[in-house]
Design the sequence.
């Protein structure tokens, strides 16, 4: 049955078990905000990565990004 429950619902229930309801609500909202920030960061990094010109990169960056 648990595999059909939305992971965000499970997270909220877990937080309610750890904290008081107001604290759980605050923690839940903070975590959702962080997830949104990570999504934006990931999208930005992907845009940068896809915009790289491998021929103009320093050898160290070639090694870092494994662009061979």
Sequence:
């Amino acid at each position: 049955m648990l595999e059909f429950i939305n992971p965000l619902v499970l997270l909220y229930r877990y937080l309610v078990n750890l904290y008081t309801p107001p604290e759980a609500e605050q923690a839940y909202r903070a975590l959702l905000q962080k997830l949104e920030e990570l999504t934006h960061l990931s999208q930005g990094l992907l845009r940068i990565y896809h915009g790289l010109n491998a021929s103009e990169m320093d050898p160290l960056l070639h090694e870092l990004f494994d662009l061979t």
